[in-house]
Design a protein that fits this description.
Length: 270
């Protein structure tokens, strides 16, 4: 028995991460999670574009169509939904004691956290693809070539990664998965509708414009609109002054949350 135990291979940390990531990703194809993500992106596109297309279109939009203007916000909404799913999964694992079970096994303490972030990145990829597909259906196009399109996708996925870390931390700390998802949905809606992703800044009341202009979703929308470009010349050129506020928000959220995430996860698994 001892000889058999000695010959048993010890899986590497990379193999353990892959197994735990597969545990979270594989069921999404069977339990309808992917289908729900696709439906949410399609519903968000329809619910925003159909009623607002004629209402919001105008000369001060400075873009060829409202679809070209709106899709960056739709993409960010899809990414935010992925972070809510991550928070729900983390809260479920925490409440059911799965994190503590992992802690009793011979695996690195942060491997389950890395696996959940990987699964969230997978959801972000699906959300981005579906949101862009819906955007193309209503008339959105990339006008600045494949390089800027790739940067558009990269910035979106980095945003999703930062939100995933935040969502996982809040979910791990929570004792109620359903309440966690609802609380994360509220700021998503507030920041989304109070952003330049819905309408130009000059259409908001003057007293709230500084908040709208400088909040994270607006800064990301500015950057994504510039990266996507337009058939006209109303969209500003891609520049460092336009990109750095968006990057600062993304890096700031990730850098501020990651140490907290490690601390919360280790406390939860003791």
């Amino acid at each position: 028995m001892t000889a058999l135990t000695a010959l048993r291979p010890t899986p590497s940390g990379l193999q353990q991460w892959w197994v735990l990531s597969s545990r979270l990703i594989a069921p999404t194809l069977r339990n309808g999670e992917v289908a729900v993500g696709i439906a949410v992106s399609a519903a968000a596109t329809a619910s925003l574009y159909i009623p607002l297309n004629r209402l919001m279109d105008g000369p001060d939009l400075k873009m060829s169509s409202y679809a070209q203007y709106l899709v960056p916000l739709i993409v960010l909404q899809a990414i935010a939904f992925a972070s809510i799913s991550t928070a729900f999964r983390a809260a479920t694992d925490s409440v059911q004691g799965i994190n503590r079970r992992f802690q009793s096994l011979p695996i690195p303490s942060l491997t389950p956290l890395a696996a959940r972030i990987t699964a969230s990145f997978y959801r972000c990829l699906i959300g981005l693809a579906v949101a862009l597909g819906c955007g193309y259906a209503i008339g959105f196009r990339f006008h600045r070539g494949p390089l800027f399109a790739a940067v558009f996708c990269l910035l979106t996925l980095l945003t999703g990664l930062a939100l995933a870390i935040l969502g996982d931390t809040l979910g791990t700390k929570s004792r109620d998965p359903a309440a966690t998802a609802q609380w994360l949905l509220l700021p998503q809606l507030i920041f989304g509708f109070l952003s330049v992703g819905i309408q130009p800044l000059n259409r908001f009341p003057e007293w709230i414009r500084p908040i709208v202009d400088n909040q994270p979703i607006s800064r990301l929308v500015y950057a994504l609109q510039a990266l996507a470009g337009d058939s006209g010349d109303g969209v500003p050129a891609v520049s460092w002054s336009l990109m750095w506020p968006a990057l600062a928000w993304v890096v700031g959220i990730a850098a501020g949350t990651l140490p907290w995430a490690v601390l919360v996860y280790r406390r939860r698994t003791r």
